[in-house]
Each structure stands twice: as structure tokens, then as C-alpha cells.
Amino acid sequence: MAKHKVSVAASQASASVGADETALKEFVTTESHRMTLPDVNAVLELLNHRKQLLEAESCAAQNRLLNEFLRHLLQQKEEQLVRLAKEVSLIKKDIGEVDTILRDVVEQAGKLPRMDSEEDSEPLELPETPKLDCPTLVSRRRRMHAHFDDFVQCYFTSRAKELVFGADDNCSTAKGSGTFLQFFWEFQSFLLINACAFRQV
Length: 201
Fold this sequence. Notes:
mainly alpha
């Protein structure tokens, strides 16, 4: 009976919105001197139960938000992973095509008739690692790395269709790589012209 009275009184006291804490303090102040030990134990049990319930609700809400955040983050990273996998696959395919072109160039160059002055020279070979002792290659390599981000952006822009929809045939692949190759050499020439004009000023 005492437990029921305390429970009803506590519920009524906490019913007023915005005055829960004040009402609870007033109830405890006015009723505490009338409470026996069983009443105090009943109140403590009720409050402890309410505390555990509030803690569980708070923990559940926090973990729901954390779960939502992690799932959204995972989705973003998986999408990035798929995009990166497509980009890596496209880059590897283009590297293979460029390697084929280099081998064809070397093969064709080896079939050219040699001049008398070249009879004793060594045949043209394709090294695994390009030598950077050629001044033209060194300067072009320096310009490429100085504007590397620009080349990257142009490369993926020219291959955007393949990255999104995939390559339907070799024609679309060649067209995309050809567009980037044209930009690559035109931009290199533009940088070279600007460098020469700057030195002449």
C-alpha cells in the first residue's frame, strides 16, 4: 500500500511539464518525515528502476546514432573502393597499351636501315626503367611532376565515361586514351613555350 501511494504520488508530481524536478523535491520534502523504512526502500527501488530505464534508453539512442554514422561511413568508403578499383583497372589497362606501343616503336626502329655511321652502334633497346640522361626527357619529366594534379584531373575527365559505364569496346578505350594523350603533349608544349618566352623576357 505504501509503495503504491509513493508510486502514484511520484507519477503525479512528475506529470507537470517543466516542473518535474521541482515537484519531486517538494514531494520528498513534504513526505519524507512521514515515510517509514519500507517506504524509503520502495522509493529507492522505484528510482533505481527508473534510473536504469533512462540509462538504457540513452545508451540505445547513442548507439543507434553511432550505428547510423558507421553504416553511412561504410557506404561512402565502399563506393570509394569501387571507384578506386575501376580507376586502378583503367590505369593498368592503359599502362599495358603504352607498353605495347613502346615495344612496337622499338621493333619498328630496329627494322629501319642503318646509316654507315650507325653500323657499329648498338641496337635500340627498351630499358625496364627509362634513363633520364636526355635533357629533353628530364625537362618534360620535371614539367609533368610540377603539374601532376592537372594531368590527373584531365586523365580521369577524358576517361569519365569508361569509369562510370565501363568500356564497351576497344574503340571507346582508344578514343579516351587518345584524347588524354593529345592533351598531355599539347599541355607539355604549352609549358615549354611559356618557359622559353619567360627566359627571353
